[in-house]
Specification:
359 residues; alpha+beta; Endonuclease III, domain 1; Nucleoside Triphosphate Pyrophosphohydrolase; 2 domains; seven-stranded mixed beta sheet; 15 helices; 16% strand; globular; binds iron/sulfur cluster
């Protein structure tokens, strides 16, 4: 069972396992602080396998902090397209620009948290992985491993569990190997001590003999599950409207999800009649619908919404209110090639895929 006295053996067992089992990842080749910074931004909410091709492309185009700081936002967002959570990309660019402005050529080890997008976890990860400093880095994987190892009866993602897990990490971490120790905890969580709905592979775990939750048979119940948010189901029309051969796109608000992106607009489905619904919505938006064609359906989710959208294309003529909205930059007319070069939110990319699949 895991006690104060078993802490040295936890570290030894974990580090031995990590030296045998660590995945060969590009940012682990030399622990270059810039590579660690980029990898940590990309890995927030995202699996390693998804990140790898993006990381390689990123490093080919922006090999260091200076080249990133000089890049324009449109180009870095385009490279990030498909990775989601675009505020991470904007924050990474802002952080790089701020660091370079302050005269740094690599992320500074101290006060990392004063840069955009660097919270306590990311600051701890960069400080320990890039600079081998003895600070905790508690992501979801480490939090789960510590909750099970020490049988911490706290809710997943809660601040109480994060605080307890960070304390345990600090007291268990060998002072000379924080880089390996933090990564080993994360790696164990990603490869062995798996989250629900999978079961932890305790038979393959180097810590099985000292794991308190396993001894008590409660490993699948730690940490305590978060209450599930209720998913609201929405039915919608997605509309690609052609006006004089150009596509009508809507600009998303400057704050929040997909902030500032152009999108193929969608709106709640009132009836099953696409022509009637698009005509009514067109009057509000500022165009007259001349023809309407249903193309297919797409499903997407955001926050606690699950959307089923019927995608239609239509031919339309603009009315004066739309011209005003276009002048104000809220709506825009784009050619098809421009559409493909824009960074579009996931639903718009799904709509475009439906359209190209029938062409
Ligand atoms: S023994 Fe099982 S529950 Fe405990 S740390 Fe290992 S994989 Fe996780």
């Amino acid at each position: 069972m895991c006690t104060e006295n078993s802490r040295p053996s936890i570290a030894a067992l974990l580090l031995q396992w990590f030296s045998r089992s660590a995945r060969a990842l590009p940012w682990r080749q030399d622990y270059d602080p810039y590579k660690v910074l980029v990898s940590e931004f990309m890995l927030q909410q995202t699996q390693v396998e998804t990140v790898l091709p993006y990381f390689e492309k990123w490093m080919a185009l922006y090999p260091d902090l200076t080249s990133l700081a000089k890049a324009d936002e449109g180009s870095v967002l385009k490279l990030w397209e498909g990775l989601g959570y675009y505020s991470r990309c904007r924050n990474l660019l802002s952080a790089a620009r701020a660091m370079v402005r302050e005269g740094f050529s690599v992320p500074p080890a101290d006060a990392l948290s004063r840069y955009p997008g660097i919270g306590p976890y990311t600051a701890g990860a960069i400080a320990s992985i890039a600079y081998n400093l003895p600070v905790p880095a508690v992501d979801g994987n480490t939090e789960r491993v510590m909750a099970r190892l020490f049988d911490l009866e706290e809710t997943a993602g809660s601040s109480a569990l994060k605080r307890l897990a960070a304390e345990k990490v600090l007291r268990t971490m060998p002072q000379e190997t924080p880089r390996a120790f933090n990564q080993a905890l994360m790696e164990l969580g990603a490869l062995v001590c798996l989250p629900p709905p999978k079961n932890p592979s305790c038979g393959d775990c180097p810590l099985a003999e000292v794991c308190a939750a396993r001894m008590r048979g409660v490993q699948s119940l730690r940490p305590l599950p978060k209450p599930r948010p209720l998913l609201e189901k929405i039915q919608a029309w997605g509309v690609l409207c052609f006006i004089d051969g150009l596509c009508l796109l809507r600009r998303r608000p400057s704050k929040g999800l997909w902030a500032g992106f152009w999108e193929i607009p969608w709106f709640p489905r009132q009836t099953e009649n696409s022509r009637a619904d698009v005509t009514a919505w067109g009057k509000e938006t500022g165009f007259q619908c001349l023809s309407c064609r249903e193309v297919g359906t797409a499903r997407f989710s955001f926050t606690n919404h699950q959307v089923t959208a019927w995608f239609v294309t239509c031919e339309a003529t603009p009315l004066p209110p739309l011209t005003e909205k276009i002048r104000a930059g809220e709506w825009g007319l784009h050619s098809i090639p421009t559409l493909h070069s824009l960074t579009l939110p996931a639903p718009s990319r799904k709509f475009l895929k439906l359209m190209t699949s029938i062409e």
